[in-house]
């Protein structure tokens, strides 16, 4: 069971054009900013909107012309869409009933599934009597009850509060592991994507801009959006044997020697700030002006302008010592070993 | 503001009060059990109920079509559906006669093919009432459908439900209050129907003479009988209103 799709959907001024593949048991996260076309892609896969071009091949069969009820795709919707007039049990039994399983058999299967997601005490409850996390589990059980060939999850954790989110994420991870078909997960939260998915597909403006596992994406972002998401400074330029020209008159000395178009990425914590030009080792030093100061976890995030725009994380103590405030002029330095260059 | 408001209230309440004051309370039990009244009441309840069932069978799918699909001329169809609402019922009756009458467009065919005529029969009463009352049901159900989240139908589809199954098992239970309210309004309208009924079905006691027709006829011969009949209709209306508010619509 695997998925191979090329989704083209045109909607007033917006075009989604994305290829998507997922192997048996693989969890692929579609990650992107709001309006990138993630939900459109999911709805197109589920058959809730039609394709303008392209194809969807699931389990070796073309399904892009099939109605949603014939696609055998399970969907967990963002706000779950549990049927409010049915109990948790009947919600889960709904799918099997529609597929011709007898009432008794459907209920047995639904009870099993609800027990599996840890809700055996809540089978008789109506959706409004369930907490957010419980509703999410019922929605998952309902989607899995039809034994779908493909499982789709739309922002599965977005509606939950922080604490429930943590529990539910771990729980969801366990259940995704037991699903034999491919899973496609839509999210705008990089943490959810990295925790739940085997592979990330980054969607921006209707197009796939980067795919890869979490380690590659977090260390080698290829767009500003991904760089912001994983908290790295990112520049594009031309590399010549250990230095990369990232602005007209500005080069960075980096780790990794090759020649050609390149990306340079480094974390804000790799940037050090000084009142006077530092003597000695770091080869990358440049004058910069503070434009903004904000709190970032334990550190302060300093936004700087100069030959390049850069974010630096420094301790509060250091910030006080340097008297950092917007407009202040400082020297920035970056160790060459902390800046990674990779081909663009 | 207070004076016209009180005047308005009085204007609505006084006629009803008049009905209660002038009612022949002492002879009420005998009058209520007169065979003529019972026959008219029975016929009224029967035809109004049948008309409501007809409206449900035809009106709910029509409302679904208007609320959930887009097709060319949908707005025009929607306007057409509401025409009986503003059309004088007598005109409706004339129109029905022209179509379903013995020499009518459809009526002639019905007569020659099945030997079946509608005008001046009990079935004709049902047709006239359904024609006039259907917009109430369609508008109410369409409103309920527009208010209901259509994504539940999408969720049902992904679980393997056909459109019909999704409608029957998900949408219909969700809009049940709207359907019930529409059915009650439709029933009440059918019960009070006069103009279209008398034009299309005539005024034959026991066959097409419903309560409103009986009231009208009695008014010319026996005022007290007319009052008694009116009282019965008033009581039925009030009971409907009370039931609808408390049970089905959930108005606080």
From TrEMBL, chain A:
Mop domain: residues covered: 279-343
InterPro entries given in the database record: AAA+_ATPase (IPR003593), ABC_SmlMolc_Importer (IPR050093), ABC_transporter-like_ATP-bd (IPR003439), ABC_transporter-like_CS (IPR017871), ABC_transpr_FbpC (IPR015853), Mo/tungstate-bd_C_term_dom (IPR008995), Mop_domain (IPR004606), P-loop_NTPase (IPR027417)
Keywords: ATP-binding, Cell membrane, Ion transport, Iron, Iron transport, Membrane, Molybdenum, Nucleotide-binding, Transport
Domain of life assignment: Bacteria
Entries under Gene3D superfamilies matching the protein: 2.40.50.100, P-loop containing nucleotide triphosphate hydrolases
Domain ABC transporter intervals: 3-230
GO CC annotations on file: membrane
Record SMART domains: AAA
One GO MF term attached to the UniProt entry: ATP hydrolysis activity
Gene Ontology process terms (BP): molybdate ion transport
The name this protein goes by in its record: ABC transporter ATP-binding protein
Species in which this protein is naturally found: Winogradskya consettensis
TrEMBL record, chain B:
Membrane topology note: Multi-pass membrane protein
Organism (species): Winogradskya consettensis
Localization: Cell membrane
Protein name: Molybdenum transport system permease
UniProt xrefs under InterPro entries: MetI-like (IPR000515), MetI-like_sf (IPR035906), ModB_ABC (IPR011867), NifC_ABC_porter (IPR006469)
Annotated TM spans: 46-67, 79-100, 120-141, 170-190, 225-244
Keywords, ordered alphabetically: Cell membrane, Membrane, Molybdenum, Transmembrane, Transmembrane helix, Transport
Main localization category: membrane
Family recorded in the similarity comment: Belongs to the binding-protein-dependent transport system permease family. CysTW subfamily.
Domain of life: Bacteria
GO CC annotations, alphabetized: plasma membrane
Pfam family of the protein (one): BPD_transp_1
PROSITE patterns on file: ABC_TM1
One term of GO molecular function: molybdate ion transmembrane transporter activity
SUPFAM superfamilies in the record: MetI-like
CDD domains, sorted: TM_PBP2 (cd06261)
């Amino acid at each position: 069971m695997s998925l191979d799709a090329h989704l083209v959907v045109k909607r007033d001024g917006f075009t989604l054009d994305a290829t998507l593949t997922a192997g048996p048991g693989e969890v692929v996260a579609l990650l992107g900013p709001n309006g990138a076309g993630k939900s459109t892609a999911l709805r197109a896969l589920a058959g809730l909107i039609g394709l303008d071009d392209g194809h969807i091949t699931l389990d070796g069969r073309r399904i892009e012309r099939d109605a949603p009820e014939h696609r055998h795709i399970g969907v967990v919707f963002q706000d779950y869409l549990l049927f409010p007039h049915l109990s948790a049990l009947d919600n889960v039994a709904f799918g099997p009933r529609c597929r011709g399983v007898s009432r008794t058999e459907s209920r047995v299967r639904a009870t099993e599934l609800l027990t599996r997601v840890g809700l055996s005490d809540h089978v008789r409850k109506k959706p409004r009597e369930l907490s957010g996390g419980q509703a999410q589990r019922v929605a998952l059980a309902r989607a899995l009850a039809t034994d779908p060939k493909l499982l789709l999850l739309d922002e599965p954790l977005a509606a939950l509060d922080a604490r429930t989110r943590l529990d539910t994420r771990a729980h969801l991870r366990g259940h995704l592991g037991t699903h034999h078909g491919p899973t496609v997960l839509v999210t705008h939260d990089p943490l959810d994507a990295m925790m739940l998915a085997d592979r990330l597909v980054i969607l921006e403006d209707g197009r796939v801009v980067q795919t890869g596992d979490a380690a590659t994406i977090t260390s080698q972002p290829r767009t500003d959006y991904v760089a912001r998401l994983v908290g790295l400074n990112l520049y594009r330029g031309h590399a010549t044997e250990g230095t990369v020209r990232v602005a007209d008159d500005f080069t960075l000395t980096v780790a990794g020697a090759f020649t050609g178009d390149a990306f340079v990425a480094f974390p804000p914590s790799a940037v050090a700030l000084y009142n006077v030009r530092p003597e000695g080792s770091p080869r990358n030093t440049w004058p910069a002006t503070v434009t903004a100061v904000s709190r970032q976890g334990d550190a302060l995030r300093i936004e700087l302008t100069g030959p390049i725009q850069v974010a630096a994380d420094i301790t509060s103590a250091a910030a006080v010592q340097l008297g950092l405030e917007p407009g202040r002029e400082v020297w920035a330095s970056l160790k060459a070993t902390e800046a990674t260059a990779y081909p663009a | 503001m207070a004076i016209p408001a009180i005047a308005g209230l009085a204007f609505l309440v006084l006629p009803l009060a008049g009905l209660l004051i002038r009612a022949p309370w002492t002879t009420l039990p005998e009058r209520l059990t007169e065979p003529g009244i019972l026959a008219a009441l029975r016929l009224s309840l029967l035809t109004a109920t049948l008309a409501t069932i007809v409206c449900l069978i035809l009106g709910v799918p029509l409302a679904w079509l208007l609320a959930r699909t887009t097709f060319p001329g949908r707005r025009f169809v929607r306007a057409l559906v509401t025409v009986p609402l503003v059309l004088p019922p007598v005109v409706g009756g004339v129109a029905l006669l022209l179509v379903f009458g013995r020499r009518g467009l459809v009526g002639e065919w019905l007569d020659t093919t099945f030997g079946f005529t509608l005008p001046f029969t009990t079935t004709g009463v049902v047709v006239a009432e359904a024609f006039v009352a259907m917009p109430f049901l369609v508008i109410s159900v369409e409103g309920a459908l527009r208010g209901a989240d259509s994504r539940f139908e999408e969720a049902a589809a992904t679980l393997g439900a056909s459109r019909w199954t999704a409608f029957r098992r998900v949408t219909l239970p969700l809009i049940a209050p709207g359907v019930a309210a529409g059915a009650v309004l439709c029933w009440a309208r059918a019960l009070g129907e006069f103009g279209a009924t008398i034009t299309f079905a005539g005024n034959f006691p026991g066959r097409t003479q419903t309560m409103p027709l009986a009231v009208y006829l009695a008014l010319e011969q026996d005022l007290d009988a007319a009052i008694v009949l009116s009282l019965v209709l008033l009581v039925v209306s009030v009971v409907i209103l009370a039931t609808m508010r408390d049970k089905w619509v959930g108005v606080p």
